[in-house]
Amino acid sequence: MEVEAAGNVQVESDAEPSSNCSSEDEEELISKRVSIFKNLSFEEGLRYWALLSSLPHVWLNLLLELIREKTHFALPKDARTLLHTNRIPATITSTAGGRMWYNGVQRSLEQRSSIVIMPSSISLNISIDGIPLHRSSREAFWPILISINELPKEAPLIVAIYSGQKKPQSMEGFLRCFVDEMNVILANGTTIRGQTIAVAVRCIIADAPARAMVKGAASFNARQGCLKCTALGTKNAVTGAVVFESTNASKRSDEDFRLERYPDHHRTRSPLLDLVNFDMIEDVIVSDRLHLIDLGVMRKLLQGWRAVYEHFLLFYCAITLLSSSVHKRNWVQAGQMLIQFVSKFNDVYSEGYVTSNVHNLVHVYDEVAKFGALGSLSAYPFENELQHIKNMLRNGYKGCNR
């Protein structure tokens, strides 16, 4: 992978702010970016600005020529020199039906430690999702990203990137290096800049198709598609959607999943089964703010706003309570509100709309009780990082190598 870095400066994605970012967050981000320039030389500041704005090399070359002609600054002639582009070919392996660049967990943490102070103990959120690269091509990236839960304002780290015309065809080829490295780190901790750091895996945050893929489980729209419970989906004759109307089905367990006691739920063996201290049911979360709530259930509710306002209030109040630890004493009540919300869904919208997304609201309270408020279970930072990865490509030639 051809990497361009601004020295010891973290370059954040220039994607649009996510919908859960407040104006205070945006002002803080702008202030942070402006303050960075105060500690940089002119050349370093120019490099940071060029990376942040994803300026094409051809225009940056013209700017460098203008600055050299009109000022006393001795700058490189070529944008690649200014941007510290790594011209050493990346190690790319063929696997899972595509090509894979593996940066590694250890190396990713070491790279981030150059700009932040690492806590003595960290827990990692893992995210896996696909992002198409070009409209004219079927090639897509499937990065493995991690974020440090104790450093919520830090951008995700890139552990690996898979590139292919389809999604990874083998989870063994896609995940094995990551699982093996994580097990070593989980057992021994990691030493970074002389500091010993204890590492744990907190959870996996992904959208519904990716969750099923990495677990080797049935798709979200299959009859046995719920990852959390044994509720059975039925295909609605009118909408064609697979709906899950039960709110009290028995919950799946890590032990039963590992023993393959859910025959219609299992599809293939996943390397995640070898990840130590990892619960295959509880630690692959469905309560992702981006995919489940904002782009999932909320979007569906907005389609019939006037007729469903009172029903919507159940959803809105429950999500508000579950989004902050300040309301922790009301989380049980919020969970009951979500169950009531799902139970009444057919009455409000008619039958055929309690899809996997709506059904998963039944399981939100359990995950919030284990992991914390919904804000810490969001795919927004990972989605922004996916756009950042995509923007690093200067053109479509050999995407994974670049």
UniProtKB/TrEMBL annotation:
Residues 1-26 are annotated as: Disordered. This is AGAP002950-PA-like protein. It comes from Anopheles sinensis.
